[in-house]
Specification:
Chain A has helices at 2-15, 41-55, 62-68, 72-82. Chain A is an all-alpha fold. The longest helix of chain A is centred in the middle third of the chain and has 15 residues, at 41-55. Chain B is an alpha/beta fold and 402 residues long. Chain B has 2 domains: 5-241, Peroxisomal Thiolase, Chain A, domain 1; 251-399, 3-Layer(aba) Sandwich (Peroxisomal Thiolase, Chain A, domain 1). In chain B, strands 1, 2, 3, 4, 5, 6, 7, 8, 9, 12 and 13 form an 11-stranded mixed sheet that branches. In chain B, helix 3 (73-88) packs across helix 6 (139-149), helix 7 packs across helix 13 (335-349) and helix 10 crosses helix 11 (300-314). Chain B is globular, with a radius of gyration of 20 Å. Chain B starts with a strand and ends with a strand. Chain C folds into 2 domains: 5-216, Thiolase/Chalcone synthase (Peroxisomal Thiolase, Chain A, domain 1, 3-Layer(aba) Sandwich); 224-352, 3-Layer(aba) Sandwich (Peroxisomal Thiolase, Chain A, domain 1). Chain C has helices at residues 49-52, 57-72, 90-102, 110-116, 120-128, 144-158, 174-182, 237-250, 272-279, 292-295, 302-315; strands spanning 5-13, 35-36, 80-84, 134-138, 163-170, 206-207, 209-216, 224-233, 260-263, 287-290, 323-325, 334-341, 345-352. In chain C, helix 2 (57-72) packs across helix 5 (120-128) and helix 3 runs antiparallel to helix 4 (110-116). The chains are: A mainly alpha (85), B alpha/beta (402), C alpha/beta (355). Chains B and C meet through helix 5, helix 6, strand 4, helix 7 and helix 8 of B and helix 3, helix 4, helix 5, strand 4 and helix 6 of C.
């Protein structure tokens, strides 16, 4: 799981084009949105694309996405439970 | 400052070609939203749109003259609307033309013509469709139309996303007021394209059902296509053309709210200032407004922000308001001009067009739009809102010409 | 007639090292494969990782140019933000077209779509400077910057604003170069910028440039005064001359009063006649300068001439590399810019040293 979370963090960095950020700078439990990393609604749409392209998980409603993207921990668990690839 | 009169107008939308077809559909509560027949996209079965119900070839012969015009859907829709706008104001012949400007607006210009041939355009070895290379911007269509109608003295094109043609009308009016031109043909056009349909789909704000502006359960917009143009004239120009004013463009305001690249502030700061600015520019009070043709795209964010702005500005004395996007879809750069035409029709015929598919007000916002056609009532001042990406908000105010 | 306006600050990002020192460098880069591509500023100094994440090439350049221009003018919140661009962010437009094809209209990244919007940069500048104000974008090829300036002049004339941030931005991409190459925009043979203006063949070299200006109503601390402009779409050759004459007359000047004329010669022999005919009006004392062999050809290249003029009048000198024909005037007071974009969009600007 630790290795997976590191991979996921790198994927987040690539998907959101966070140039120069390192995976270890993103905390497992810190909120990704608002006061945490500071992501917004457009990032949430980018992360939905990431889930579909990398894991075959389709999310139609962006509001559902925001729950999944609460933190890296929540996101990693959701992916492991729902991944199609 | 001199007054700016509207002396002609023309419109093409999913509701039909021309003002009468559009008005009949509005009065009959007949929406133009459905499944596309002509747009080349694999999303057409999934996402409803408001498509002009004719193919481009069938519309071309409706133009009085076809010379110089390529068979581009963008250009043909715009040309039909301009042709209608010019017929309204045909004054006595034989008089010299006033100095006329053509201010066009579009969000993606000739993208509809380009996207099907893009692969060949960027292939150095293929020399087909060379002409389409120039259509990959906003000005190509404007220039064809300018040459076709003889508006080459002053041309411009504006692109501010969904507020584009409202800004074109505003620019035309300001140029007239400053005496730079005497008359302006202002408006906008956009066609349905894969580019924009996929763009809004990537933002996940397209409703899979017909859109429900200002409804608690709204779930996004439907894209539409169309074109509309107004003829704006100064008093000096009217003395030359002999045209009869249809209405007065009495106020306008552009206000960028600097909140977020795509979303409005929840309080509708930009919408509030745009509406307030337009009413103040006209020297009117909020109580004078008869109808607000709202931006009302039916996206979660827009309607909440616009609703909050309406409540803040008008409070308990809320004028009748609705969104005709439930008929025409969101026609992007054409929306401001199409809704300007509807606003002037409302003033001239003393009627108000409703919103469709409204059931419940948005939570926390005590706002109920007009849901039935109202006729035989005095309509003196109509506010028309157009808000877009990048926080670009524009409001136009049209008043009765006594 | 609109009141003159004053250029308080002026910034340029081009293929040349014009940005860092805000001046024309002593040594110029040459075109590679008939393209003069941006020398990109160091963005890291301006933005955090989070701010940079959704900025594409042209947005970054535009933001940096706008930020420095406002800083030069000691302005934090411009009262209007008005831009012009012929093509907007081509990279984003192309990326989104390709994404649609590659992923079969499936789930797509929204960012290139958002950034492809022509007014995206305007919105970003407003956001960055927390400026809620008048904000619009003109997208009419060789008139894009001119309409942005005209719009600002109306705002300043009315007193609706005391100042306005006005600018233009343009980029060239590999794909767009090919599209235009097939349409005859560029020279068939590779050419050095030093030989461009004498080429006598069709086509020019591609360029790109981003220019920002702070315009203001009052003369305080201004670089130069913009007295007026004229725009002509597909005119007859004599009309250009007549309109220039009208512009001069309206400002109480004659041809002989011009100290410097900047001409948009781009080495394309299909359009050279406009410039040679125009130049035949000029006194031998007037310096004739060119600029497109330095910045290349693009929709909003007139921005480079405007930037050059602001500096030339303020510093009372110009680089000999710009010279088409040397005049004799020592004092550089009255400047006329005449540019046309492939014979279609003709723009005239009359500028004057501030008193």
């Amino acid at each position: 799981m630790e290795e997976f979370k590191r991979t996921l963090k790198q994927q987040i960095i690539d998907a959101l084009n966070l140039q120069g950020m390192k995976p270890e700078e993103i905390q497992d439990t810190a909120p990704l949105f608002n006061e945490g990393l500071g992501l917004d609604s457009i990032d949430s749409l980018e992360l939905i694309v990431l889930l579909e392209r990398n894991y075959g998980i389709k999310i139609e409603d962006p509001r559902e996405g925001r729950k999944v993207f609460e933190s890296v921990n929540v996101m990693a668990e959701y992916i492991q439970a729902n991944r199609k690839k | 400052m001199c007054k700016v009169y509207v002396t002609g107008m023309g419109v093409v939308s999913a509701l039909g070609l021309g003002k009468e077809e559009n008005r009949s559909a509005l009065l009959a509560r007949k929406s133009g939203i459905g499944h596309a027949k002509y747009l080349n996209s694999s999303l057409v079965d999934k996402l409803p749109v408001a498509e002009v119900p004719f193919n481009t070839t069938a519309m071309l012969p409706l133009l009085h003259r076809q010379e110089n015009l390529q068979q581009s859907r963008l250009v043909v829709l715009a040309a039909l609307a301009i042709q209608e706008a010019l017929c309204d104001r045909l004054g006595p012949s034989g008089k010299p033309s006033p100095l006329t400007g053509f201010i066009n607006a579009t969000t993606v210009g000739g993208m509809g013509d380009v996207e099907d041939v893009y692969d060949s355009l960027i292939n150095p070895g293929i020399r087909d469709n060379l002409g389409a290379g120039d259509a990959l911007d906003c000005a190509a269509g404007t220039e064809q139309l300018a040459r076709h109608f003889g508006f080459t003295q002053f041309v411009s094109t504006i692109s501010t996303a969904c507020s584009s043609s409202a800004n074109a009308i505003m620019y035309g009016a300001r140029l007239i007021r400053h005496g730079i031109i005497d008359r302006a043909i202002c408006g906008g056009v956009d066609t349905l394209t894969r580019f924009t349909l996929n763009g809004f789909n990537s933002l996940k704000n397209i409703d899979k059902q017909p859109c429900r502006p200002f409804d608690a359960n709204r779930n996004g917009l439907n894209l539409g296509e169309g074109a509309a143009y107004l003829v704006l004239e100064s008093e000096k120009s009217i003395n030359i053309t002999g045209a009869t004013p249809l209405a007065i463009l009495s106020g306008y305001c552009n206000f960028n709210e600097a909140f977020h690249p795509t979303a409005p502030s929840p309080e509708g700061e930009g919408a509030y200032h745009a509406m307030k600015g337009a009413i103040e520019a006209a020297g009117l009070e909020t109580g004078s407004i008869s109808w607000i043709n709202a931006h009302g795209t039916a996206t979660i964010n827009n309607d909440e922000a616009e609703g909050a702005a309406l409540l803040r500005l008008f409070g308990k004395e809320m004028p009748a308001f609705s969104s005709t996007k439930s008929f025409t879809g969101h026609t992007l750069a054409a929306a401001g001009a199409i809704e300007a035409v509807f606003s002037i029709m409302s003033i001239r015929h003393g009627e108000i067009y409703p919103v469709l598919h409204f059931n419940d007000p948005m939570p926390g916002l005590d706002l109920v739009p007009v849901t039935e056609v109202k006729t035989g009532i005095p309509v003196n001042h109509v506010l028309s809102n157009s808000f877009g990406f990048g926080g670009n908000n524009a409001s136009l105010l049209f008043s009765k010409y006594a | 007639m609109l009141d003159p306006v004053y250029i308080r600050a002026s910034r340029a990002v081009t293929a040349q090292d014009t940005f860092a020192a805000n001046s024309l460098p002593a040594v110029f880069s040459d075109a590679i494969n008939n393209t003069l591509s941006y020398l990109q500023p160091a963005y890291q100094d301006y933005f955090t990782i989070m701010q940079l994440r959704r900025m594409s090439r042209i947005t970054r350049i535009g933001m940096v140019a706008a930020i420095e221009c406002l800083r030069d003018a000691k302005l934090t919140h411009p009262q209007a933000i008005i831009t012009g661009t012929g093509k907007g962010s081509l990279s984003d437009t192309e990326k989104f077209i390709h994404n649609i094809m590659e992923f079969n209209e499936g789930t797509l990244n929204p960012t290139p779509f958002i950034q492809s919007t022509y007014n995206a940069l305007n919105g970003m500048i407003g956001l960055h400077h927390d400026s809620s104000s008048y904000n619009t974008t003109y997208v009419h090829r060789g008139f894009s910057l001119e309409h942005a300036i005209l719009d600002a002049m109306m705002h300043l004339h009315d007193g609706e604003a005391e100042n306005a941030l006005v600018g233009s931005f343009e980029e060239i991409t590999g794909e767009h170069f090919v599209i235009k190459e097939k349409m005859g925009y560029w020279k068939k043979e590779n050419i050095s910028r030093t030989e461009l203006l004498q080429a006598d063949t069709p086509g020019s070299i591609a360029g790109e440039g981003t220019f920002f200006f702070v315009l203001q109503k009052q003369p305080e601390d201004a670089m130069v005064r913009l007295n007026g402009m004229k725009l002509l779409f597909e005119p007859q050759e004599h009309q250009v001359r007549e309109q220039a004459q009208a512009l001069l007359n309206a400002n109480g000047l004659s041809w002989n009063d011009l100290d410097v004329v900047l001409l948009g010669n781009n080495g394309d022999n299909r359009f050279d006649h406009y410039y040679s005919n125009f130049a035949s009006q000029l006194s031998d004392e007037t310096h004739q300068l060119a600029f497109k062999h330095i910045c290349g050809e693009f929709d909003t290249a007139s921005g480079f001439a405007l930037w050059l003029t602001a500096h030339l009048v303020k510093e009372q000198e110009f680089s000999n590399d710009l010279l088409l024909k040397k005049g004799s005037r020592m004092r550089l007071r009255n400047v006329l810019i005449y540019n046309n974009y492939y014979g279609s969009h003709h723009a005239l600007y009359l500028l004057q040293e501030c008193q």
